[in-house]
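Blinded run. Sample ID left blank on purpose so nobody reads anything into the name before looking at the predicted structure. Input follows.
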Amino acid sequence: MLKNNRIYPVIAAVPELEKNLKGRDKVQTLSQLARYALEISCQKSGIILGVLDKDQNGAPVPFDGNFWSVTHKSEYAGGVVAKKATGFDIEKIKPVSKALIDKVAGHKEWALSDSGKEINFFRFWTAKEAVLKASGKGISGLSDCSIEKIIDDKSLIVKYNNQKQEVWHYFFDGHIASIVNNGFDIEWTLL
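Blinded prediction complete.
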């Protein structure tokens, strides 16, 4: 049972010796680290980690009524467990092309903020990715996702399949992590 309506997304740094791995070895190492972060999230939540299966589309299948999401990039991996569908994404903040900026959001979405497009690009991208993970759809649903409202510099509302979901952001070490809130208190852990 989740403690106090709280979820614990956990982010783990990739060890220096493993950052230079390539191909299958890199993917396997990052996947293992994300699952380790998920295990820590389970421990913090008072949940025993169950079997981590995926459906035919690659979406995580809940275990014992517990939803889970993992994410990884070259420098960090993360995992979270929750009693409702959730999605979790991490990205490194770096320069991006105008074409990519235009692809991730439309004019109405960009008009929601007067902040720089680069930081909002990563807020929008990771928020949409988190919502799509929570839905089980994945990145193929990107064009059907829209930013509806920017609440503040750490949360916003994403609309997908006529449902609005709040996404919270966590900024760390030149990266951004986003997670679908679903009414939980969120306590971030950076290992």
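Unblinding after everyone has recorded impressions. Residues 23-45 form the longest helix (23 residues).
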